[in-house]
Amino acid sequence: MHRPAEYINNDIYPLDNPGSDDLKELVDQCRSSLDETGVCILKEFVQKQLINKMVHEADQYIHLAHFSDDSHNVFFKDDDDSLPTNHPLRIKEKTSLKSIPYDLMDPKDALHQLYNWDPLMNFLSPILGYKLYRMADPMAALTINCMDEGQNHGWHYDESQVTITLLIQKPVSGGLFQCVPNLRKKDFDNFENLDAVLNGDQKDVVTLDIEPGDLLIFAGFYSLHRVTPVKGEKTRYVGTLCYKDEPNILNSPEVQQLFYGRINQS
Length: 266
Ligand SMILES: O=C(O)CCC(=O)C(=O)O
Ligand SMILES: [Fe+2]
What we know:
Elements: H1 21-37, E1 39-42, H2 48-61, E2 66-72, E3 93-100, H3 110-115, H4 118-128, E4 133-134, E5 142-147, E6 153-156, E7 163-169, E8 173-174, E9 177-180, H5 191-198, E10 206-207, E11 215-218, E12 224-227, E13 230-231, E14 236-241, E15 243-244, H6 253-260
Helix pairs in contact: 1-4
Bound molecules: 2-oxoglutaric acid (AKG) and fe (ii) ion.
């Protein structure tokens, strides 16, 4: 078995050397990138050999994954029929994917170990600018989102300020991560531009260049984003690592039911 420290491309990302000047410089670069562009991509973060192991692990669990097929607005909020029918919050996006939850993984799994490796959380914390805690949700804390041919994740904002994902397997084509950085501001939802994007305006849409092994730190609360439909036989696998700024955070029973088909509030 490998140790998480050996999973990382240590030459570029000296996470197990806290206090080093190289690590401080890396944290500063990541924080600036996230502040200025809403995105930070750590290319070749996890070594190829370990990514292959993660693919193998995902292949073993996929038959247990819960399939969800949802139609939602960008905030996943209930339809508000007091709004005009053409209001962007009444536009429905489709999302269909399978999710492998944390409680089905084995603590020996590579992704499980990476998530629970303190140097990773300690590295991410100053980039995000607050103390991090692993999410307490037994299913949502760590998931592998799986998308087969035709499946996609429609335009949306995340509930968390920042989302951390690791691309594990890329499909033959499609399955592209696209975003409109900082479309929304703290006190300004910018419905006019949101409406334009939802109606197909590509002007401000950025497609990120992400390969398996790249870690993405993404400000999904302010940046509208989606994953385009997957094409071809190969499943797209993405690990979603959930860290929160408070301890003991769980998803609601409703959200658990939607994404995992069961409720586990323990
Ligand atoms: O699959 C991805 O790359 C992004 C997933 C995402 O946006 C989410 O889980 O909220
Ligand atoms: Fe998202």
